[in-house]
Design goal:
Elements: H1 18-27, H2 30-35, H3 52-61, H4 64-78, E1 87-92, E2 108-113, E3 118-123, H5 134-138, E4 147-149, H6 157-165, E5 169-175, H7 179-186, E6 194-198, E7 204-209
C-alpha cells in the first residue's frame, strides 16, 4: 500500500507494509481509537491498541469485497454533488509487489471519479480477466445520467446494454480488433447522438453514445 502523495508528486515512505499499519495503530491517539470502535478495559479508562497479531488476523478474515462496498458507499454519501455530469472511470491494475513465484499478481478492478475518488473495487478472479467483473463492480452505484469511461477491453455489447439499462452514458474505445464495428463507427455522421475521434494512425476510434 503506497503512502500519501507528496505535494510535488513524490510519495512519502511508511505505509507500504503491514508493519507500518501496526505501528500506526500503536501510535494512534485515544480519541482516534475510540472513533474506530475500540473501548477501554474494565479496570481503566485507557484504550489499549490491538496487538499486531490481532491486526493481521482481522485483515486476513475481512471480506475484501464487502469492505470495498462499505467504503465506497461511505464515500458516495459524503461526496457533495458538483456542477456538471458525473464521470466514472473503470480500470483494472495489477498490485505492485503482489506477484510471487507460485502466485500471479493480485489484480483489482475499480470505479473512480475523474478527480481520483475511488467509489468501489473488486478483486479480479485469478483465472479470468476484467470483463466478467465489470457489471458486478457497478451494480451498487447509481449510474443514472453518469458518463462511464473504460479502455477498449470493455467495448463489449453486453457492457453497452447494461449501461444503457442503468440510464448511463458511456465512452467506448473501438480498435481494429473489432474491425466491423471500427469501420461502422468511422462512417458515423456527426450529430448529437454520437461523436467520434480517430487518432493520426487511424487505428483507434473513440465514440460517445447517449443512453
Amino acid at each position: 500500500m503506497d503512502g500519501p502523495a507528496h505535494r510535488r508528486g513524490r510519495r512519502r515512505p511508511g505505509r507500504r507494509r503491514l508493519h507500518a499499519i501496526e505501528e500506526w495503530v500503536t501510535d494512534a491517539p485515544q480519541r482516534v481509537l475510540a472513533l474506530l470502535g475500540f473501548r477501554p478495559g474494565p479496570l481503566a479508562d485507557l484504550i489499549r491498541p490491538p496487538h499486531a497479531t490481532t491486526v493481521r488476523l482481522a485483515l486476513a478474515a475481512a471480506d475484501g469485497d464487502a469492505l470495498d462496498r462499505a467504503i465506497g458507499g461511505f464515500l458516495l454519501e459524503r461526496k457533495a454533488p458538483g456542477p456538471g455530469r458525473r464521470v466514472i472511470a473503470v480500470d483494472g491494475k495489477a498490485l505492485r509487489g503482489s506477484r510471487t513465484a507460485g502466485r500471479p499478481a493480485t489484480a483489482p478492478i475499480a470505479a473512480m471519479t475523474h478527480n481520483g475518488q475511488v467509489l468501489t473495487q473488486r478483486q479480479i478472479d485469478g483465472k479470468s480477466n476484467e470483463i466478467p467483473a465489470f457489471t458486478p463492480l457497478l451494480d451498487d452505484i447509481d449510474l443514472t445520467g453518469t458518463v462511464v469511461t473504460a479502455d477498449a477491453l470493455h467495448t463489449q455489447h453486453d457492457h453497452a446494454t447494461y449501461l444503457h439499462g442503468r440510464g448511463a452514458h458511456y465512452l467506448a474505445v473501438v480498435k481494429r480488433n473489432h474491425p466491423g464495428l471500427h469501420q461502422k463507427v468511422r462512417r458515423l455522421p456527426g450529430g448529437t447522438s454520437a461523436w467520434t475521434t480517430t487518432n493520426a494512425d487511424a487505428d483507434t476510434t473513440a465514440t460517445r453514445y447517449a443512453a
